[in-house]
Amino acid sequence: MFKDVIGQTPVKQHLVELVHSNRLSHALLFLGPEGSGALPMALAFSQYVVCENRREADACGVCPSCVKAQQLMHPDIHYSYPVIPKKAGDKPVSTDYGAEWREFIGQYPYGNAYDWLQFIGAENKQGNITAQECNDIIRKLNLKSFESGYKILVMWMPEYLGNEGNKLLKLIEEPPADTLFLLVAENESLILPTILSRTQLVKIPLPETVDIERALAERAGLGAEQARQIAVLCEGNYHEALQLIRHAEDDWQGVLREWLNAILKNGPIAQVKWIEEISKSGRERQKQFLRYFNHLLEQAIRLRYIDGGGLPIPEGERDIALRLNKIADIGQQRAIIEELDNAAYYIERNAHAKMLFHALTIKVYHILADRKIAVIS
């Protein structure tokens, strides 16, 4: 239901108005960055469309259609998502993973594609939305609806749809009556242009910090101060907020101090030791570290322009941010932020961790080289 989607009041109102004013396009693209809630929004909208007793701003939540939709078992709502072969030679389709999909959405409604692929045991395998999947979609959507007036396809991550997606063009362009396509994506540049051009865009922004803070307090049971700190740190990405809770015991400040001391003071042996350690950690933990360092650099830049007492920064972070201002000017800090962003991008794409952090260490060293100050302690 819409009430389960964090924030996004204007988007919810817009979607409700599309239904009530009968201006609903047959193909919508829910486009939002990781952690924005684009998938929960699409699922809530599909439930709203099939609800038998719609309220003014949300589905009723109790009619038979709502109950089935909430359980992801409504016969007229179909789901498509990246999958992997269960064994060599398999030609998998989404329905092969129906039970796993329902369990995943129940546990991780704000999960990303990496979470999903790990959930189904992909490890280093690449997920795909296959040609067989496209054929299965065509077959399903050409059937008559069972219960509701609509047949709905929710396709999550159409970025995983290769040229075989062109099989769907005729269906999207000339769909059977009362057929609704809901595509849910993070990166429109990776979607087939032929499909992209046939959709109506629904932008899903990142939630406001206050909405994240409220959700962390109500859903994750955090205290007010911890909820506020994590909401500020995750910058609207609720998936990231949950990852920060999961890694709350990680000593990011200690890891950062060790790295900077290795770069500025202790030399190659200490650098190699640090790289070995960070490379052994999982991809999510590596991303968390890069995001944390990035956050501190952004706080350091803010401290240059705003009275330090006016920024709500935890004391430990404030101390490191001020020290970062001593070892790097604003140009150097922005250069490091760019390198951290690039590194996070490559981690997302399964870059070799040891090589990546070795290269990143060298780059940060050269950025800081002309203003080395003894140590971050």
TrEMBL record:
<dbReference type="Pfam" id="PF13177">
    <property type="entry name" value="DNA_pol3_delta2"/>
</dbReference>
<protein>
    <submittedName>
        <fullName>DNA polymerase III subunit delta</fullName>
    </submittedName>
</protein>
<dbReference type="GO" id="GO:0006261">
    <property type="term" value="P:DNA-templated DNA replication"/>
</dbReference>
<dbReference type="InterPro" id="IPR027417">
    <property type="entry name" value="P-loop_NTPase"/>
</dbReference>
<dbReference type="InterPro" id="IPR050238">
    <property type="entry name" value="DNA_Rep/Repair_Clamp_Loader"/>
</dbReference>
